[in-house]
């Protein structure tokens, strides 16, 4: 007799959760991504104790019908990818079908959802991968509300690894601010223990969101960036060289509205600044690149924040040129002719 056993789902989910939900902020990120994928224009995130005790994400997106509301918690259950071919042109933020299953494996989750045009919503409750009550109808506005309590209640090792409430809260704030920058057309609110910590108007005005994130004084000084080639389009804002920071915390790059981390492109921005930047300083920027999804692979890491380009050097060139041009224009010394 062999000794190999297939893991029970709850155990497999818990292991998968380790990749997806490291801390409250990763949970917030997944839930907000789902709200955006559902076409929400208003997203409210509420935290208790930095999200460790509880978090609620409420949206006005398209909601789920009762069957989907239950199925959403199954691993590899997604409405976003149907075939292998879809993987080469992912247009949604999610596609792995792992987030809700992972979160529900390590927390107590209450999902309320009401599809557009439906009379009422449905509530589904899952704790540690187990449904704790049969789905029941619930009165609620259209959209989805997900409450996540007692994160890591059944994985003490992970719970111990969390930092202070202040630190976890700060990371959640970063996630919401990044999402707000990614989507100036969506209104975000972040509340902690009932107090509004961050808010963006959702009016589609980048400068307005930048002011909410960086402060009005900083945002006002930033320079606008614009550029295009047949394959790529770039736009956004860069800080002046004098606004550069010691860390990369104010460097935001979005590919097709997805926040990403990419060292080569950060270097490309730096190269665009060239000698204008003091050594060991990082420019502030909010840059958006649009390209055919087939030219970028987002399926290389569970966090979906790292990407691979089929033509990395071309992308880097577009970024560098656009940044350099914006700076050249801003600091062009006008030629003055003085007649004596
Ligand atoms: P993925 O986002 O990769 O598809 P998730 O586990 O995050 O996987 O979500 C599973 C499915 O549940 C999604 O594909 C979507 O159909 C549904 N879903 C999750 N959150 C929402 C939401 N806020 N509004 C509408 N549908 C949602
Ligand atoms: Mg998702």
TrEMBL record:
Superkingdom of this protein's organism: Bacteria
Organism, as annotated: Alicyclobacillus cycloheptanicus
Coiled-coil regions listed in the entry: none
Known role: This protein is involved in the repair of mismatches in DNA. It is required for dam-dependent methyl-directed DNA mismatch repair. May act as a 'molecular matchmaker', a protein that promotes the formation of a stable complex between two or more DNA-binding proteins in an ATP-dependent manner without itself being part of a final effector complex.
Record domain DNA mismatch repair protein S5: where: 210-328
Name recorded for this polypeptide: DNA mismatch repair protein MutL
The entry's keywords: DNA damage, DNA repair
Gene name linked to the record: mutL
Family (UniProt): Belongs to the DNA mismatch repair MutL/HexB family.
């Amino acid at each position: 007799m062999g000794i190999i056993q297939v893991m029970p789902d709850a155990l497999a989910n818990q292991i998968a959760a380790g990749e997806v939900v490291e801390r409250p902020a990763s949970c917030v990120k997944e839930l907000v991504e789902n709200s955006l994928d559902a076409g929400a224009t208003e997203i409210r995130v509420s935290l208790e104790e930095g999200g460790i005790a509880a978090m609620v994400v409420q949206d006005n997106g398209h909601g789920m019908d009762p069957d989907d509301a239950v199925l959403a918690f199954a691993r590899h259950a997604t409405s976003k990818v149907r075939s292998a071919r879809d993987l080469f042109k992912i247009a949604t933020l999610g596609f792995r079908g792992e987030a809700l299953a992972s979160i529900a494996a390590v927390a107590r989750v209450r999902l309320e959802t009401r599809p557009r045009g439906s009379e009422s919503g449905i509530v589904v409750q899952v704790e540690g991968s187990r449904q704790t009550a049969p789905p029941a109808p619930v009165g609620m506005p259209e959209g989805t509300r997900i409450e996540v309590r007692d994160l890591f209640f059944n994985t003490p090792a992970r719970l111990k690894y969390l930092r202070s409430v202040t630190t976890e809260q700060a990371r959640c704030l970063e996630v919401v601010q990044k999402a707000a920058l990614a989507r100036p057309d969506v209104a975000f609110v972040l509340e902690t223990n009932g107090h509004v910590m961050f808010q963006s108007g959702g009016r589609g005005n980048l400068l307005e969101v930048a002011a909410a994130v960086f402060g009005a004084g900083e945002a006002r000084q930033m320079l606008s960036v614009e550029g295009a080639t047949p394959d790529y389009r770039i736009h956004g804002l860069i800080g002046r060289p004098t606004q550069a920071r010691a860390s990369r915390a104010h460097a935001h790059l979005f590919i097709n509205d997805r926040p990403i981390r990419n060292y080569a492109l950060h270097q490309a921005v730096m190269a665009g600044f060239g000698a204008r930047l003091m050594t060991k300083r990082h420019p502030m920027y909010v840059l958006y690149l649009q390209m055919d999804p087939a030219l970028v692979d987002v399926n290389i890491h569970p966090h979906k924040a790292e990407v691979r380009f089929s033509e990395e050097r071309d992308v880097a060139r577009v970024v560098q040129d656009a940044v350099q041009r914006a700076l050249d224009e801003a600091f062009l010394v006008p030629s003055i002719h003085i007649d004596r």
